[in-house]
## 1
Amino acid sequence: MNDDRSGQRERRHADAATPVATTRGPGTRLRVAFEQMNLPDLWDTRRHARDFCDTRAGYLNRRIRPLALLLLFGLPLWLPLEAWLLQPGELASTAALRLGGAVAGLALWLACRRGAPIAPTRWHLGLLLLIPMTIYVMVRLVLDHEPDSALAAGYAFFPALTLAALAIFPLTLREGLVYSLAIIVAFAGVEVVQDTLLDWRTLGQFWLLFLVAGIALWAALGQLHMMLRLYRQATRDPLTGLFNRRALIERMQQQLVALDRRGQPFALLMLDLDRFKRINDTHGHQLGDQVLETVAGVLRDASRETDVAGRWGGEEFLVALPGTMLEDAREVAERLREQIRATPVPLPDGGSLTVTASIGLATREPGEALDDLVLRADEALYAAKAAGRDCVVPAEPGQGP
């Protein structure tokens, strides 16, 4: 219910801000439109969260795998038709190309089974596109020099088909342009070598390739935009922009699996804003929301790349510190507590409000379940409240049940 009220307040604030922007001229309206389209997020991955990059990499790999299987089984299936159409010498060469492409498809399928971060996944996609384009270039340059022959005609659709395949992947504009231009440049290189670059047939194919590339990029960007929106709605708290509780639990469970394999520690901070109800009662819920946003900004700015911060519920926040021992985690907790106290929230009358937080700290014991770890951190938080607030209290080993 609190989230519903927060969402309503955010929508009212957005609605109230829109007329102001629209009264500042077409330049401002265009800038606002671009911001709403999230163009920086669609251009490249610099503003993408690491967890989103991992999620997108998994999605891309799942899309690559069936296409790799299609290459594995589809390329050899075309050989009987070529055996009927081609001469024995040509058949041997195309058979070698197709079987080589099938083997590459198998290797790609195996590589995608293991999953990978976004950088290797880009290479997986590049290999998927390279296989048909390599066959096309070899057929045109090495095996046949007549573009109107039956052999060349059978492979003429490979560049357009490879470009069209980009439409099924959620790609950034930069990624899509790199893949598209690589395919078009390979096609142009063949035509330059064969001295057919300025033929009407070639110019018509260029027009078709650019058209297919534009449609494929539009579809890829549409997928990425929708994926970003759905991901943020599913994983982010609408007020603070931090992870919501469900996403926070999923991320911590993933981290625990990886840390168990490497035998590394794991620490948890449970934060609660002191006397937050009094802030709401005295200054109103709108200022209370501003306090939550300010504290979320402190957690976001102070977190390392591997840390996971989220809103646990109400005025409670949780920060996961993978690979962190007790003393290091305590230093992090003290630094967060001091930064929260040192970040005042401005009041409407020109004054400022100092916010403090109590923090419970727990480090994971061998084999301890996540629920038990969270419970110990929560109990340590209650101990910090009982100790006078605005302090850090570590949980004792075995404090939980």
## 2
Amino acid sequence: MKNKQNKNNGHSSTDAGPQNETPPAGSKQKQDSSKKSRKNRPKIKILFHIVFWITWLTFIALTVLTLLDFKRSGSSLLKGTFFSFCLIISILGAYPRQPLRKRFQTLITWTGFLFLFVELTLQILSLSNKLPAVCVYDHIPFGRLYCAQECRVSGFMNRYGWHTSPFKLSPDAGKIALIGDSYIEAFQINPDQHLGQKLQNLLNKHAANGQKTEILTMGISGAGPAQYLEMIKIAVEYYQAREIVLFLFLGNDFSDTLWDPNRSMKKPDRYIYYTINDEQNLEIHPQSKKARESFTTKLINNYKHPFPDINRFLKNHCMTLSIIKIFRQLRNTEQEAATQETETTMSQNKDFSINIVPDHFTLYPNMESVQGELITLKILDRCYQYAKEKNVQLKIVSIPYFPGHFYEKFSGSTWSFTFDNFDYIRHEGIIDLFTQNRDIPYLPMGQWMEENRITTHNLQDIYLRDGIGHLSSRGHQLFADIIYETFYTNNTKSIK
């Protein structure tokens, strides 16, 4: 019995020996990792398929949208190249034969991954105000805004495509529209710091009989008097504004109205220019009729529809496409400036911004400057006649310009706008005469600053870029206070 037990025990031990052997540690880890990889393969495959389909459908959509853009705004080399690229990708994604189709799909998928990585990085940088030296915006409802020039501001346009607080458009509130260029659009500050919001707070704080006032801030960067005329019409007819405060920037508003092939930064088919005919009457430049129609149509569509142009909306919110567009515009601007400016002109302009024409400030202006002033005054007269016809009050405020060498020449409170054969508020005298003849309330801020002996240090606080840029938040507060005291209080004398 003992022998049998021993044999059985021996047999069981010999049989169990090889079964209980543990595999090497390395082979077990390989088996576990292979199992995990087999489990993860379907997930990765699904992810690749999702990215492929999103990328492919996006390229198809871009192809269609670019084709529609051809019909609306014409063609260009860059637009044609982009359309061809999108079309090729769209065709390759549907290639029928297998080995090449798989390669094309892989290529498209990795293109999608790369695009998503770049776009996500740009969005994070813009939302955290870390993206340098670009200004992304478009005048569309709920448009994306990121500006890193002078100050860094990130946000969105309001429902009507303006950089300001949301419009309430209450029928019980009196509406005042502020019309101007980039100084009124003010990408450099948040909407709650804008002079429009400050002025609205002052008016409602001191309102008699509880009458509420709503300020409609309507600024467009690069606009001039020709655009202001159209903006006034839209403010009155669509937004029901009963009062207009028109802001004239003395830096370039008297030169933007005249088309000069040697100096104008925008061509007539992309900007509104006027001319004086033989009968000394104002008429629009023949090539600018299309630009005027396009300008007004966009603003009206913004009022009527919350999403008037899906193509522009998507391009605006895609930071990658927006930055590509910015670099293209900068390249075109540099090329146009290089072809227009001679070495002499460049040496004369070294102390001025790129869109400022020094000749318009000289004590003895040339014929082009006089022509620009005449056109501007005739456009302002049309603004006045339109406001009078619609029973709308028109008021004008001028924003002075300070060149860089102003701060090299002056310091403290002893300074003047007239130096080195230039008079930087010469146009305020022209506007003053124009407004007096028509009984238009006028606030010449340059004259106010000079009479009140604002120090150069304070001027550099009022304007960004050490005194030569756009208005700072302090500048907006100052303008709001002076506008309120001048136009809306009974105990304040006119500054004329």
